[in-house]
Amino acid sequence: MNASHVPRRPGVDALARIGHRSPGVDPADASPHSFPDGGTWRTEIPSVEGPEALAVVLAESLRLDVPVHRVSQGSGVWMLTDAEISGMAASCAERGIELCLFTGPRGTWDIGAATRTDSGGGGLRARGHDALAGCVEDALRATSLGVRCLLVADEGVLWTLHRLRAAGLLPDGTTFKLSALTGPVNPAAYAVYERLGADSLNVPSDLTLDHLTEIRRVSRAPMDLYVEAPDDLGGYVRMYEVAELIRRGAPLYLKFGLSRSPAIYPYGAQLRELTLATARERVRRGRLALDLLARHGADGGMSPLGSRLPGPLRRFPVPEGD
Prior knowledge:
alpha/beta; eight-stranded parallel beta barrel
């Protein structure tokens, strides 16, 4: 499906026969952008917290024939051993899947009491120099073990890692993914994060279709969107909109989260059965979304498996030194 293609609307023919007309579609709403390979959408399985969960995702994706471009983890680089990171990177490389690990520390897990108030304080941001340095350490460690995608939840961390990438201190081809917990909610913010170094940006799942169109008028940076969001991100289920989400938001990563499920971050063995069960179900949710796309004639336009780079993006000039 190219970005301007209008998929079949759900129930349109049956409704027309009893006098209910479906709303019209404005071609100007369509995103004019795509991934550099020409695709308009890719897939992501989030909350893949370790080697066991990854093995479940890989096996289930083969069983259900669900193409996977990226898997992401939410607990953080620091929650994995070197052997676990290396093993996950190798397993993903064998299947041409991008592995994305979260940098830390984060404000929600340190001693900052404000994050536990109703206001949320600074949320996931890195508090102080040491937390910033910890995120840098995570990035250096993960990339040395073969990881080439890092999840970031702080604009200062993002800019710092982008500068390290520009200076050659992080491997060429390393990409940065902005967390859904700090995702931009307007086009100006989206454009700023792109310029700070983001290569794909999670946006909150409660943005309207018009909001996606507004963003696409100012930026072509890939967008990540939970088709089904975890409860701590609202629990939204937007599966029936998936074709229109692609048409408006391309280039778009379809993220298959899971509502009505307990949080699993930071992951440990005490959460093993829940984590493996939810990993399996996230892949099944992906199958449901792909089947729906096919029924609506909107299953074309997927990026080739193994695709991961975002293409040329706009950046702020990187200073040579402080």
